[in-house]
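Problem 3 from the worked examples.
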Amino acid sequence: MAPLVVFVLVMFAGTEFITVALIPAIASIAIDHKIRPSRPLGGALAAASVAIVASPVSAATAVSVGFLAEKNVSLGQILTVTIPAGLIGVLAMGTWLYVMSRRTTWEPPAAERELSEATNARPADEPSDLPVGARRSVVIFALGVIAVILCGSFSELRPEVMVDGKTTRIA
């Protein structure tokens, strides 16, 4: 489950740095379910790397659009390949990690148990209080992501610039 959640969040945000905030929660949930934390953590980090390529707002995708624009390849065409391929890969990896984690039970060593008890990670089922503007911020960010996707997919929506006396659209 961790790789899929990380894939979706990184694809939406366009940066792998949000994975750092999820590491304590992933480790805590894995320890609680007697799963070796290295499996879901490793899967989550691999999924984050794959999600960068599938993200419509990442720098990697922007570079890809720039390089492929002269071959008439649009952002939409790139995403129709990278999103399904990344999602299939992450689901396959998540399934494999699930099967591997169910083969053996794992008892955390004493040091890791003490560490997990000492961390301030909130249990997954505990409700959280969101600040007043949190939902509004997510909606504004989502609208920005949609705007980037639309501008990347339809060349008519991209701005025009003057270069050497010629008007050209930004690729």
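Problem 4, a separate protein:
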Amino acid sequence: MKNWRTLMLVLLLAGVGEVTAQTDEQLINNTLSDFLEGGTNGEVERFKGAFLRDAVQKAVGNNGVTGMTVESLASKIKPNQKMERTTRVLSVSYANNAATAITETVYATNKIIDFLNLLKVGGEWKIVSRVYSRVDLTEELNTVGGATVAKNQAKPKPAAKPVKKVSDDGW
């Protein structure tokens, strides 16, 4: 009976890591949905809830680098009015309590590519910074690299140091 309990405990603990990863992935996607769908559907409070209160937002405009607060951006959303746009998440990467997401918002004449950084704060994922670019509809996201690194990859062993031969000088 004791071995059965031990086996069940080991199996339960072995699955915890996967459950946590799925939960974090879902929580990140929930935050991204609040950002994208909240904005699209005029749900101002839902939209603002995706951000850390003092999140930073920056872009390059005609006059150089511009920025705005979450409140300023949210004030542009017309409450309870759906915007004519489509949105999608292009990618998400995360490790422990930090994540990066790239989203796309397509309007009739252009689109916005958002580069979002998120942190897990008090068990919730929040957008802490947003850098974005308005581009032509035909422009695609450029990705460099893209190699997938295996999880828990063994570190290579350092090369053995050469053994220095000591000559016998008679001492």
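Solution to problem 4. Strands lie at 51-61, 64-68, 86-95, 98-106, 111-121, 124-135. Confidence is low (pLDDT under 50) at residues 6-21, 148-155.
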